[in-house]
Amino acid sequence: MNRRTFIQSAGLAATSLSAHTQPPSPAPTGIKTTLMLEMLKAPIEEELELAARAGFQSVESLTQYAAWSDADIERVKKLCRSYRIGVDTILAQQDWKKRPVSIVDPAHRETFLGDVRKAIVCAQKLEIPHVSLTSGLSAAGKTFEEQRASLIEGIQRAADLVAAANLTLLIEPLNSLVDHPGCFLTSCVEGLKLVREINLPHLRLLFDLYHEQIMRGNLIRTLTEAAPYVAVFHVADNPGRNDPGTGEVDYPNVYKAIRKTGYTGYIGMEYHPLGDPLASFTKAVGGLREALAS
Question: Distance between CA atoms of 261 and 59, rounded to whole angstroms?
Answer without folding.
Answer: 24
